Amino acid sequence: MSLLDGIILIILLVFAWKGFRNGLVKEVFRIAGLVLAGFVSFQYADLVSQLLKPFLGVPDEFLPYIGFAFLFIFALLAVHIAIFFIDSLIQLLLLSIPNKLLGSFFGLLKSSLFISILLIFFSGFGFPDNGIKQNSLLYKPILKVAPASYDIVARVLPGVKPYKDSVERYISVPD
């Protein structure tokens, strides 16, 4: 197991524990929000990067990543504000053990999606390097989570192309 695997595993375990503490209901809303944030970011990063271009003095090859980061952070903030209000309603419910166990499962899903999005994002900056990727047991399986999630959302929404046909042209999944 490589250092990258250790980092991924620690993040997965922390999110699983947080999911257990939060329970299923909150985790479902949070993972839906993360999927939504990732989808919106992947779908509209190119457009937003072009809108931000006049205000930024960066090379064009970094613009999609800046647009992606801007949208991703904005969407996550919006989702967390909504979850805050939903959480106040959920507080009225008693959380049982099955709810907490299922919450830990959704915590794992959420963290794997988040790590996948981060790995794709940082690959544009050459991180991690090929040696680290090749020595990692978890890198390739985790990396596939964000494109697979995007494709699930794309199947549900009419007119949205799969990841390979739309997003991968400017933010590609590394090898």
From TrEMBL:
InterPro entries: Colicin-V_CvpA. Its main location: membrane. It is a multi-pass membrane protein. Keywords: Membrane, Transmembrane, Transmembrane helix. GO terms for cellular component: membrane. Pfam families: Colicin_V (PF02674). This is CvpA family protein. One of its GO terms (biological process) is toxin biosynthetic process. PANTHER family: COLICIN V PRODUCTION PROTEIN (PTHR37306). It is found in: Membrane. The keyword Repeat does not apply. The chain crosses the membrane at residues 6-21, 28-45, 65-95, 107-127.
